[in-house]
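Q: Can I borrow your eye for a moment on a structure tokenisation matter? Would you mind producing a protein record, from residues through to fold? Write it directly below this note and I will take it from there.
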Amino acid sequence: MTALERAIVLVKAWPQPSQKYGETVCCAGVTTAGEWRRLFPIRFRHLGGPAKFNRWDLIEYRPAAPSDDTRIESRRVDEPTLRKVGTMSPASREGFFDSLIRNSVKQAAERGESLTLLRPTNLRVRWKLKSKSEIAADAARRTRTLRQGSLFDKELAQIQPCPFEIRIEFDDASGHHDMACSDWETGAAFFNLRATLGDEGALERLRITYETQYAAAGGVALALGTVKKRPQQWLLLGVLRLDETTQPILI
């Protein structure tokens, strides 16, 4: 039997409908040995109780190599074994992830990697209101998924898609990029801030946080990953507060 593995969670994407698994959450992290892991299937309803985790939490699970995903970081998770076992302290983060930072997505691709961390420059946050047709399509997909699941998935039913598409523009060593952000924590922050600041106030607060408190202070890293069916396409998975250290970026 495969041994249990532990990883620090860096990415939880916003829940997405899946015909096979219901509502799934894309998760990625780094093992205690410093290796990337893309973990699936992680179903939303299994994130309660002992399996509930957030960014920087240490989780334990039994992994297996997937039969339908050739990306080297991907692992299928034995869901009953998944549990949170701790949290990585801010002091422990310093320098731990430096060996995973690349100067561009091009460099990561040349190394055969499908997950990476970048130190972006000229980071800018933009947003646009989704069209009525986009919102209707999101709602229809969620309705189909909820019908597949349990009637007791009340928490899942309350998770609504963000009405705005939040985008991050940035530069790396290979050029300029403009990507949609599917980060769970960004979406959750928007809804939390919206309750007191309204839509525009919440979005502006996010902009200030990412552009000034993170990027301008030298403390931002972007987590990116490729698409299984389109391995040349990179997606922005998460915006992290990860202060720079004196160690150089691997080139």
Summary: The domain at 5-94 is CATH 2.40.50 (OB fold (Dihydrolipoamide Acetyltransferase, E2P)).
